[in-house]
Design a protein that fits this description.
Elements (H helix, E strand, L loop, with lengths): L3 H29 L2 H8 L6 H7 L5 H8 L4 H15 L2 H17 L17 H42 L13 E2 L5 E6 L12 E2 L5 E2 L5 E7 L8 E7 L1 H12 L6 E5 L2 E4 L11 E8 L1 H12 L3
Antiparallel strand pairs: 1-8, 2-3, 2-4, 2-7, 5-6, 6-9, 7-8
Length: 304
């Protein structure tokens, strides 16, 4: 005869097995109930450890690992699932998922009214509880992301100070070494040499700037950073109406070619033009430190 505690172990083993199977079946539903949650997984939680190491070369890997754990997909998923399983039954989760699927179906303009399902019955109390849970989730997500940004910028400042201390007469403080050119500030068309436009190969520029900074073409310039730029410092330039028109023509005439940006007799960036740029606003990226970005922006705004 089997002892009672053996039956208990067998029962608990089966219970946990069923729970795991249930969770695996429902987890994907939970992530798809709200489109904002899906979007967050594809943006904020897609920060790679290797990218942080490249961006912070003088910071100890242990500090970067600690930073990376603030926004961790598995950790965030665990919190999300915990919120749902502790506040909703599996049947309620499935019902909310069905409603999401129904809403997506009803938005399809190619389906006839007969092909669309028109109702999923959800109680008012369930909808109220759903709103409360998502409000809590969004607040936690926002707090987490703001904490990540704060810690990142502290490490960015520390990284800059270490780099500055390592600076000698034979090195520059810039991680990137810009090509020196004897040209006034502005945007220049590039004469390709040996069909190479990489930063490791010198670029040959036309003699005259296609859009010079010394004329009144620029309305403003400032340093910005966003999650979409990988937290690099970016220089945003806004042209006035005449400047926007000239820049549009410049990019239209140089699609598929590099366009060199010269500041203080250095090529700070030479991106390939993929399409004609309208709207009069551009962002210049170049793995700048904060001090470099501020210095470049100061030079540009001094011409306004």
């Amino acid at each position: 005869m089997k002892k009672p505690y053996i039956y208990l172990i067998l029962f608990l083993t089966g219970l946990f097995s069923c729970k795991s199977q249930r969770s695996q079946e429902v987890d994907e539903m939970i992530k798809k109930i709200d489109q904002k949650v899906e979007f967050n997984y594809k943006t904020k939680n897609n920060i790679r450890f290797d990218d942080l190491i490249i961006r912070l070369p003088y910071i100890e890997s242990s500090e970067i690992e600690k930073l990376a754990t603030i926004i961790n997909e598995k950790k965030i998923e665990k919190e999300l699932f915990s919120s749902f399983y502790s506040n909703f039954s599996v049947d309620e989760i499935k019902l909310l998922f069905q409603q999401t699927q129904l809403n997506n179906t009803n938005r399809n303009p190619f389906l006839s009214s007969e092909e669309k399902n028109n109702h999923v019955v959800i109680s008012e109390s369930l909808m109220t509880k759903r709103k409360e849970i998502y409000k809590e989730i969004y607040e936690k997500d926002s707090d987490r992301f703001n904490r990540f940004k704060k810690e990142f910028f502290l490490l960015e400042a520390k990284n800059y100070e270490i780099a500055k201390q390592k600076e000698t007469k034979n090195t520059t403080k810039n991680i990137l070494k810009y090509q020196q050119v004897n040209r006034p500030d502005g945007f220049y068309e590039v004469i390709e040499t040996n069909n190479s436009t990489t930063r490791t190969s010198p670029l040959k520029l036309v003699k005259k700037a296609s859009l010079s900074f010394k004329y009144n073409y620029i309305q403003s310039a400032k340093v910005i950073t966003t999650e979409y730029s990988g937290f690099n410092y970016v220089i945003e330039i806004v042209f006035n109406t005449p400047g926007a028109k000239r820049f549009y023509k410049l990019t239209k005439d140089n699609i598929g070619k590099p366009l060199a940006i010269v500041v203080n007799k250095e090529i700070i960036s030479a991106p390939i033009v993929n399409e004609a740029i309208e709207g009069g606003k551009i962002s210049i990226s170049g793995n700048f430190t904060l001090e470099e970005a501020k210095s470049i922006t100061s030079i540009i705004t001094s011409k306004i």
